[in-house]
Amino acid sequence: MSVYRSKTEGTNRFHDDLYGNDYACQPEENACDTKDNQYAPAYYDNSFSPNFGEASVVQTADEFSYMEQESAEVIWVKESCNINVNSTDTQIGASLQAALQLAISIVIRLSIADSGDEEAVEQELMQTISASQVNKQKIFIYNTKDATVTTTDTDISVNIQLLLQILIALVIMIDIL
Amino acid sequence: MSESSKDPMMSNKVVEVMVDSIFRKNGIKPEEVKNNLSEKQREMLKEMVTDLKAQVEEFQEKKNESKAE
């Protein structure tokens, strides 16, 4: 652990001292393999070095924003009757989120139109709420009568709230609202 | 999570400071940015934001309603 601590202090050495950082990360990632791999340079030819797990610590300028969202819903209704399934909320949420993201980028693009900064600004804003979300719902209804099922997505509404706050802050800052 | 739309999960001030710091970091001055927009664009953006805000509020309300049922 002490090795890890002392190395991470120089986090911005990520590029000129890539291997050094690998050593630094390893003890936490897979402690038991450390001794075997520490002096085997061939190991680092593998592009999926343990370093990747530490991305948030060693972030540098060429890091990119990544927002992934996946919502999958499977609803099975079998040998049943009078089943009422309502999943519109989830769908509205997804499109609302897309609309908000679009709006943020429109505002940035229009107002910071004159430079290459717009992409950087947009990325940074999105990054703060960047989230990799995978929501998978499976609903199985079997041998049932007269049931109502409503699906919602809590994560998406949190995201929407945040996006709206960012949009409003942005718009206030450039004196539109 | 039990926050309603009236009580945002992240303080508006935090978001404001964040946006401001990102602007600063990229050397963007709000005063200059204001001049990039025409009056018409300004109006359109304002409408867009108010519209989206209303939609989000409606969405959150609906969600809270269905939770209460």
Automatic annotation (TrEMBL), chain A:
Domain Spore coat protein X/V: 56-112, 119-176
A single GO cellular-component term on record: spore wall
BP-aspect Gene Ontology terms: sporulation resulting in formation of a cellular spore
UniProt keyword annotations, A-Z: Capsid protein, Virion
Name of the protein in its database record: Spore coat protein X
UniProt lineage: Bacteria, Bacillati, Bacillota, Bacilli, Bacillales
Automatic annotation (TrEMBL), chain B:
This protein's UniProt keywords: Coiled coil
Domain of life, source organism: Bacteria
Coiled coil feature spans: 35-69
Protein name per its UniProtKB record: Spore coat protein W
Species assigned in the record: Oceanobacillus oncorhynchi
